[in-house]
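Researcher: Here's my situation. A collaborator sent me these components and asked whether they could plausibly form a single complex. I don't have experimental data yet, so a predicted model of the whole assembly would be a useful starting point for our discussion.
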Amino acid sequence: MSVIVHDKSADVGGIRMHYRETGEGKTIVFLHGAGGAPPRGAGFVAMLGERHRVLVPSRPGFDETPAGACKTVLDVVAAMAAFIDKVSGGKAHVVAQSAGGAIGCWLAVLHPELVESLVLSAPAAFAHHRAPAGARPTMEEIEHRLYGDDPEWVAPPTEEERQRIARNAQANMSRFGAPEGNADLLARLGEIKVPCLLICASDDRLIPEEAMRPYQQAIPGCIRIFIHGAAHEMPIAAASRWVKLVADFVDRGEYFVVNRG
Amino acid sequence: MKFSVFNGMPYGRTRMQGNRWPVPNQYFEPEQARRAVAGCLAEVEMEDELGFDWIACAEHHYSPFNLAPNVSVLASALTQKVKRARIAILGALIPLTGNPVRIAEEFAMIDNLSGGRLVAGLLRGAPYEYMVYNVNPAESRSRFEEAWDLILRAWTDTMPFGWEGKHFHYRHVSIWPRPLQQPTPPIYVSGSSKESGEFAARKKVGLGLAFTNLPLAAEAAAHYRAKAGELGWEPTPEQIIYQLPIHVDETDEKAFETLRPMFAHSALTGGLVDANRLVATSGFFGQGDAKLVQRFRDLSADEPRSVEEAIARGTVICGGPKTALAQIKRLHAEIGCGVLNLIFDRSGAPDKKIASIQLFAKEVMPEARAL
């Protein structure tokens, strides 16, 4: 099935927010990681869009979306709440990847009326692996850490996209992605009442496994599942299996844990 | 050095002519099976009392050679007979079953039943085993590594988790009991292939060498130690097990005469050789294992034709106590193994087997322990 991904924008809280949209069905809002919107050659958006409406906003400060008045994580959370309210029609399944994890958690804490369910995919709110000492890693080494040995690209990222991802990460990690900025969130994870799925990559070289534990320990009913052999950026590193899990959780809610054959 | 007795609950000879695999179970006779079970359970009690360090068993299928297609069932029984020695499962063939969590549960249960004496062999299995449950041998490595990771996580992760692998899928795993030995029992993998040795080095676990010979085992052990060294650690002698048949008698002559019939007719003919050849040449071994593929193309060609040749190649220990001790010293020196897993069944006669075990424990083991 061929799925067309459209580029769109909307005025949200005084910010012109750019986003991609595809598919029909239950609405999924994908909150990207530190690199911004996924490369065009990442097939998972279209795969999810085969049975769902998928919105992929570029958060304030990322890609073409200006930071506007956003200076803190909570400012971004407010902007994304406004986006969900306006564009998704009032409620959405929130799927948060890596640095998007803190935003997804805060949305579920502060705006539960907007969050149908929460999928945390290698969320990076509380800790990162320290970069190894010595020479700075090459782009190839960074991409290997992100995507692993056998990423499921439809087409690999272009040089322009690589530069965009690097720009996003450099500009925004200190503002919106630093773990030390999320101490308050840790204390409030227990307030999350929506169904929550935590997807972990068994070969994650960016986020230590201990940093995944707080979500499962604090969020009531949080289900933790590993994708075996996957690197950090699971929507690309193990797209088929990741999409299968996300779609199943969105579609079946609490029945996710029951084999349907 | 430590000594393990392999006791796979052998059924004994059948009325079948020649060697076929699978062995048709029309030859199964309940009374003989009853005696085999009783004999096995009595023997392990004796072996425990004689001071062997481990009592070992293993999973094998479709053959009277070993009546333990589910090795956990046998190991559970052993826990109630063996009061002192470790119970060594060498091992379970983890890529074969569709349910590694079940293996994790059973092993943890056996560790609890034995008071923390389990030695856990998590193996790929010999090539022919891939015909048993119709598993693609080209997936063997990938299934093994995934099953391994899943079992280890099931033993050590203290919060419920789900698993989305290429081969295995679970939405909830949280096993009870966990192993008594924390974080895990001692673990071994089979390591004749280069990939297996590298895997064992990477995971910092022990290496078991079986159904091989001295030069190949020495090469595999050296490769394992070298890879471990590259990764900054050194295996202990106990982390290398070498398995082989043994027969000890009062004199060399008596021992040799007892084992000669074993070499008069090749045991490796017909179905088993064919099954191994078919699977070994269907992607079971990795790229760097051409020697092993070649060996499995015709296992019977690789088989020693005499007791003397078998001793020279390190595929059997045979002789009086002093001779056996000298052979053990050689194996220890060339392979660097710290555990010998000994198969006493090859004499064919139960009374000779028992006598051999007792003589070994009395005359060989005390001195060999010092190695």
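Model: Some features of this prediction you could bring to your collaborator: The first helix of chain B runs from residue 30 to 50. The interface with chain A takes residues 146, 149-150, 153, 159-166, 168, 171-172 of chain B (CB under 8 Å).
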